Amino acid sequence: MLLQLLSTMYQIFLPISLPVIGGVLLRRFRGLDTRPIATVSLYILTPSIVFHTLLHAELSMSDVSVTIVFSLISLVVMWLLAVGLGRLLRLPQQEQAGLTLISMFTNCVNYGLPLVLLAFGQLGLDKASVFVIGQMIIVNTVGVFFAARSHFSIKQAFYAVFRLPAVYAAILASILRLSGLSLPTALDDGFAMLAAAYSPLALAVLGAQMINVGSSSSTSDDAASPRAFWAGMGLRMVAAPLVSWVLLVLLGVEGTLFSVLLVLTSMPTAVNAVILAQQFGAAPRLVSRCILWTTLGSIVTLPALLLGLQ
Question: Across the strands, what pairs with 269?
Fold first, then answer.
């Protein structure tokens, strides 16, 4: 078992670790500014990989509908768990808001997509595409609501969603598929090239961002209570995989789709969660600490999960 675990870490996580380490080193020794790179990733590479994947994905309507239903139910269940645990522990309102961000936001884009591609191949990436689009929409609607509460504006959330180019890429790919039209070969090859550039760049940005998160967690002025921290760790690393497994079994999901959805919902907390936490005062130190430690913990938990799915 130990040898199999080490083999999984070597075959899947060693390739992933190289661009992450590169991002860490560039940030540490060259002061890499991730903002322009993240902008390229968000506005060019992410819509490209979404468009190209959805256009060529081997997806059935059953896969799409099950993924949407699963995403919505798991979102509600994790929110209820976060609210219930926050009230049970009598956490302040800020930490309760932070707990919802920790429990609901998974790093399925920068970390999850490259992992799924390496672990399950192109078929796994196809299955992951619908879930990832849903997560992007959730971050810019439900995420803003839980972070801001009293500052929430439905109009602002609506505009935030439709500022995401990946949403338009998904709509365009769906129209092309439904109409039976295809792109010229040269244009399709161009999108394929941009899609291939997504994973290494996203992982390098993740590595650089983790340095920022680690620094902010040690210098922030607001104190994160140990109860809130361990509650966040438990929700993201224990409750989320268990809830996902139960829901997938109840929904009758099997095969590659089962494995992909379980892995994506078991990812560490998304780095973007701390941006909302800082903007709306939702316990940013608590969120940043949980991002750091769930990411470090995933080095062990995700290979174990992948091993169990084999």
Answer: 106
